Amino acid sequence: MRLCAWYLYGEKHRGYALNPVANFHLQNGSVMWRINWMADTSPRGIGTSCGMMVNYRYFLEDTASNSAAYLGTQQIQASEQVLSLVSQFQQNSKL
């Protein structure tokens, strides 16, 4: 879960989220809301994402500012759950 959070939040391509689905939702002003363990146990889900799934949440009053922040400064809006997992990854990573 920590590695998944880091991949989605911390791994970048030209400053933006490396994952194309994350990049799509973040460009449109969402918040990286929750990472779900074993949410997609289909063979495809296990093969492509180890069964993990991410929820992106859109707060309509914040989508324009979130989108502008992401496109302008590559700032990702994320929930406390996601940020906690990112922090845990950073503390324990040897990367």
From TrEMBL:
Any one GO molecular-function label of the UniProt entry: malonyl-CoA decarboxylase activity
Gene3D superfamilies the UniProt entry points to: Malonyl-CoA decarboxylase, catalytic domain (3.40.630.150)
Signal peptide: none
Residue span, Malonyl-CoA decarboxylase C-terminal domain: 1-58
Gene Ontology CC: mitochondrial matrix; peroxisomal matrix
GO biological process: acetyl-CoA biosynthetic process; fatty acid biosynthetic process; malonyl-CoA catabolic process
Name of the protein in its database record: DCMC protein
Pfam family, one: MCD
Name of the gene: Mlycd
InterPro entries cross-referenced by the UniProt entry: Malonyl_CoA_deC, Malonyl_CoA_deC_C, Malonyl_CoA_deC_C_sf
